[in-house]
Structure prediction request, 448 residues.
Amino acid sequence: MIRVIVVDDDPLACRILTRMLGPDYLVDAFGNGEEALAHFRRQGAEIILSDVKMPRLGGMELLARVKEINPEVPVFIITGHSSLAGAVTAVKNGAYDYIAKPFDPDDVLARINRALKERRLEGTLAFYRQEQEQEQERHAPLTRNRRMAEVLELGRRAARSDSSVLIQGETGVGKELVARMIHHCSPRREHPFVPINCGALAEGVLESELFGHEKGAFTGAVARRTGYFELANRGTLFLDEIGTTGNPFQVKLLRVLQERCVTRVGSGTPVAVDARIIAATNQNLDEEARRGVFRSDLYYRLSVVTLQIPPLRERPEDIPLLAGHFMRLYRHINPRINGMSEEGWRLLERYDYPGNVRELENIVERAMILETSDLLTPRSLLVEGGAATGAPEEEPLRMEEAERDHILRVLRSCNGRKLEAARILGINKTTLWRKMKRYGVEEGEEGG
Ligand SMILES: Nc1ncnc2c1ncn2[C@@H]1O[C@H](COP(=O)(O)OP(=O)(O)OP(=O)(O)O)[C@@H](O)[C@H]1O
Ligand SMILES: [Mg+2]
Prediction:
């Protein structure tokens, strides 16, 4: 119910307004500004109707105080015909509108409704804006590292232009995340971001996926298909693992980039496309181009702006930042976990993360599953803390091995009863079974 505060030292005015608004609103009436303000401070209200001349605290003073507390609440000033000038001053000072005495019920209700409608509209706009910001935030890579921050800043600056961007970095460093950030910071953000993994597709398939094909272009082309290039029109096309593509494909891609149009496989007619290209690779493309493994003309075309993302081990300050981020992200898995033990932090900071941020994410996610206390400890992060207490030059214990060992140990302690082991591990039986298969753990005698 919408709450309205009515303030007038004339009890009759209060009574009339209360009766008028009563069926639709929750009305609280006061005879002076001081009481009304105290009530507003305690309980709030969506709308305030106030007389100007009142004992103790006048209408204009009340208006000013309310604006301090919540500038968004519309305040109506009640005036007699004789003091219209005062009403105009009030509106200049931030009152939403005025209401003239004697009251015309239809007019009063219409004005109030209009105010509420505007507020709701503003409310949804603010909500929408907030959503958009959150959306951008989801694509905002976190960092405390100076070099990484510079890389991101360069990416944001490049976002404003249409230039191609080449993102280089080891596996799992966040190349795709940075590509999405660029898209979301660019004027193309309302249009699609289309990622395609060039490394996962055979050359011929890649070509028809990217450029599309006509019906009957080749065996199996039963229908005409729009390519990713066209899908990304006005948006961004993310070409992941570009370094793995072969020479014939590179030639075709270069032509598309130069001519800004694609020709579907099996068609003679080019279609204009406007897609911003972001390419990523975990190789050193510069080197590959120099060696002639990657076409240098395409390399130059793609690398107008190059972002080199440093590996996680070279930005140790990001380890606690990202670990905390992933603990929040995976909180739902194990809501009991409320932090990381001191040894846990030490362990994470010492590890060298060949799989970079993705590996850290997996470590935290798995620990959230395995941990049985309310803190993440080396036991769940790296099983028994082998690496935490070991000498620094010791080969870091790989997570997979650690998990395998842990599962084996728990299974043994349950005499191979999987249901019980799964319960202790905090995972379901299917997940356990899947992990056992993956790690080649022997099916013991069936029990659980
Ligand atoms: N700076 C960061 N802040 C928050 N999350 C990050 C950050 N960097 C990476 N991530 C997360 O780590 C995971 C791996 O990132 P992403 O997929 O972008 O890496 P990639 O470099 O594309 O990996 P690959 O080389 O394997 O394709 C994702 O879940 C991503 O959200
Ligand atoms: Mg990737």
Summary: Residues 138 and 344 are 26 Å apart (CA to CA). Residues 383-396 have pLDDT under 50 and may be disordered.
